[in-house]
Amino acid sequence: AQAREITAHLQRSGLPAARGRPLPGADVLESAVAGLLAQHDDRNGGFGRAPKFPQSMAVEVLLRAGTPEALTAATTSLEAMAAGGMWDHLGGGFARYSTDDIWLVPHFEKMLYDNALLARAYLHGWQATGSAVLREVLDGIVAYVLRDLRQPGGGFASAEDADSEGEEGRFYVWTPDELSDVLGDDAARQAGAFWGVVGRGNFEGRSILNRLHARGSLSGSPEIEAARAALLAARSTRVRPGLDDKVLTEWNALLVAALAEAGAACDRSDWVAAAVEGADFLLGALRRPDDGRWLRSWQADAGASVLAFAADHAALVDAFTRLHEATGEARWIAAGVETADALLDLFWDLEGGGVFTTGTDGERLVARQKDLMDGATPSANSLTAVALLRLAALTGDERYRERAGDVLRLLGGVAGQHPTAMAHLLAAVDLSVSGIDEVVVTGDRPDLLTAVRSDWRPRAVLAWGERFESPLWEGRPDDGRAYVCRHFTCDAPVTDPDALAALLAD
Question: What are 307-324's pLDDT values in tens digits?
Fold first, then answer.
């Protein structure tokens, strides 16, 4: 019903009508936040009833809103998801969704895209609240994807199956006797009490590890942490669920963006290095050799295939801008510009606005479709709006800002009424309404970079290190100063980290 309503709205108001409209304003954001709070399950976290999906993009809307009520709801959801069985309490990483209202019994399949989007949600939750448990979950997600999904060469596999040995969840569930076999009786009793492992089980006679009885607390005593390591080692000898080793451009780009941003924010150079390696793999393996056309899917035994969609391109643009912010390398801005230009050349709808799912060089269809609503991943159009606004702020290319504005005029009005279907678009509305702080750090000033990264700054972009073509770099000697600009009009430069943080907090 929601999809029909949104489609009907767009048929009534294509781009010619939308171009005369103002950009969506703060009222759209207020309406969206009110709608999300009304749908939020304040007892159990999440939105609506079972089955419950992570809805990380909706949580991000609440974190951006930043009001006490919105932050409480976001934190409740993030803590509840991590307490339940969707979270892997031994090895980290999230399963796809919960089959019940309380997050206990998951569908055990683990998807790369979920973990990429949830890494950002937990990063931002930690930055917005300082909650140690949210940071712990972020660390666990990254540990999982780097350990279990990273492939030779640096790309990331798509998913792990739910089943092993013919049973869903068999790899993840335990009995008290199995705990005793690994830990001994006393430690097994302690571990069983900590993770809710009971004789009758909570899932087909076995127990899904969880902390629902102690939500908001994931770590335990040294004895519990030793038990966690021992159980993880024992579990690694079980038959693993099957691995879908396809490397998908869009999903990898979502993860690269998350690793780059989290690595910079958490001062984890190893995370940034993994993001760089992942992006370099995509640049080398997922483009057509003769003309550089992006492709969507790669497997070791088959190579790359399928022309990339709009969502692949838009996710890549976002990943490349965040790689520049994390590394200071100009090549990532160049890659972002090249990919954004391909996105607009191949996918932009000159008549109706927004991006089509497939390119002009794709299979001839009677009608090219548009990916308008967020599902398990952000829609191509919401990815495009966010990525182009950020790239425009870094490069000064007005064409990117105008195309992002066209997407917002086309879809922004609907987003306030349907926030769960367009949560990522609301991030673009927020950037448009609030404006973007363009931060430039010249010279070798890691202390100034730390001042920028020490807080969550969802409405800022950062240029530093190697120079690239942009008004932000014009007339800026390498003298170790920081500039904060809005639409390329800049405050007086500062050299003190505290002064820079104060400017950004205004």
Answer: 999 999 999 999 999 999
The distance from CA 44 to its chain's CA centroid, rounded to whole angstroms, is: 23
3-state SS, one letter per residue, for 118-133: HHHHHHHHHHHHCCHH
- Helix (H) or strand (E) segment spanning residue 264: helix 249-265
Phi first, then psi: give them for residue 156, nearest 5 degrees: -120, 135
Q: Which pLDDT does position 15 carry in this prediction? A: 53
Whole-structure pTM value: 0.97
Cβ 310 vs Cβ 356: under 8 Å: yes
Phi–psi pair at 495, nearest 5 degrees: -120, -10
Tokens of 169: 């969840």
Q: What is the mean pLDDT of residues 412-424?
A: 94
Residue 474: count other Cβ atoms within 10 Å of its Cβ.
Answer: 10
Hey, what are 347's tokens?
């996918």
DSSP for residue 352: T
Cα–Cα distance for residue pair 250/262, rounded to 1 Å: 18
Separation CA 506–CA 500 (nearest Å)? 10
For residue 505, count other CB atoms closer than 10 A to its CB.
8
Ranges of H-type helices in 145-184: 176-183
Q: Output the CA torsion sign for 298, 302, 308, 313.
A: positive
DSSP-derived pairing of the beta strands 243-244 and 159-160: antiparallel
Q: How far apart are CA 86 and CA 102, in angstroms?
A: 10
Say which amino acid occupies 99. Answer: T
Cβ atoms of 98 and 84 within 8 Å: the answer is yes
Q: Are 99 and 228 a contacting pair, CB within 8 Å?
A: no
Q: What angle do CA 14, 361, 405 make, to 5 degrees?
A: 35
Antiparallel, parallel or unpaired: β 460-464 and 437-441: parallel
Report the b/e string of 71-83 with b at 16+ CB within 10 A.
bebbbbbbbbbbb
Strands of the 110-111 sheet, one edge to the other: 110-111, 159-160, 243-244
**Radius of gyration of the chain measured on its C-alpha atoms:** 23
What separation in angstroms does the CA of 271 have from each of 39, 41, 141, 251, 356? 35, 33, 12, 17, 33
* Residue 173 half-sphere exposure toward CB, CA atoms < 13 A: 25
Q: What is the pLDDT of residues 9-34, one digit of tens each?
A: 666 555 555 667 889 999 999 999 99
